[in-house]
Amino acid sequence: MVKRRPGTTPTLEQVAALAGVGRGTVSRVINNEAGVRESTRRAVQRAIAELGYVPNLAARSLAGRRADAVALVITERDWRLFGEPFFSETVTAVGDALAETSVQLLLTLVRTDAERQRFVEYARGGRVDGVLLMSVRAEDRLPDMLADAGLPTVLLGRRSGDEQITYVDADNVGGAREAVSHLLRGGRRAIAAITGPLDMYVAQCRLRGYQQAMERAGLPAPASWTVEGDFTEASGRRAMAELLDRHPDVDAVLAASDTMATGALAVLRAAGRRVPDDVAVVGFDDFELARHTDPPLTTVRQPLEQIGRTMVRLLLEEMDQPEVAWRHVILRTQLVVRESA
């Protein structure tokens, strides 16, 4: 009987000895290769289970094998944001897309330079076949580090208009522009904007859409009519209070996320402003909460399920064809009109 000392890692040789076969046979069973008798395969599998042997994924990678796993990496530095619907809905969309494959999804948080370097080394060790990245800010080098390491990578969104890594994004400029155009068609003229963090390209794009719509209508949009938030409800409250203080005559507001719009609604209610009679409010995302605000929220729907499926499809294609060119996909948004505007 083959035994191992407590605290030691079982080896391929120990598996082979316990099963009564050679190292090569154990490798063929682990890699699910043909040419192994079923009785031998079962003996090796019993030995692996008894010893608790875990195959060396790095060695399998060097041999051209797959880890059959991809990492979904969240680079957000602020822990509060993990409670926002965007993260849970994105993880669900990606998970649903991968459920149709044999690929395992690993969720990883990377916030510091040390964590970036550690993750790249982990990924290069053959533990994952590709990486999905979300919440990447303008200065983040992680996508470039992964590309330099030769790891297939797909971004949700992009760091700038010059992004080269493969990405899938929503039409944030067009969505925000259509939302403000809707407010203008409804007779609103004193329209403010609550932006996301402006070191994120998504927030810059939604602000640009607001500015374009105002410019096309021949209306000024000075800086005092915009306040920067961070996509949380609390920042929406702070921004709306600041806008009311600066411009008591505000008659509409575009918030760059549904959660910030929810915060704006609460402040307007507390200030005695009726929505939409006195101030119309439009959000962005169309999360489930948008249907249950008081009043229900007019918002811009970004197709998160389609985004997740497209990210997974592009990543799997890059894993199969590493030489394929980087691809940039922008999906359409849709204005969903409810009672708040």
TrEMBL record:
Xref: PANTHER family: HTH-TYPE TRANSCRIPTIONAL REGULATOR GALS, LACI-RELATED TRANSCRIPTIONAL REPRESSOR
Name of the protein: LacI family DNA-binding transcriptional regulator
CDD domains for the chain: HTH_LacI, PBP1_LacI_sugar_binding-like
InterPro entries: HTH_LacI (IPR000843), LacI/GalR-like_sensor (IPR046335), Lambda_DNA-bd_dom_sf (IPR010982), Peripla_BP_I (IPR028082)
Keyword DNA-binding: yes
GO MF terms, alphabetically ordered: DNA binding
Domain HTH lacI-type: 10-64
One family name in Pfam for this protein: LacI
Keyword terms: DNA-binding, Transcription, Transcription regulation
Native organism: Streptomyces olindensis
Presence of keyword DNA-binding: yes
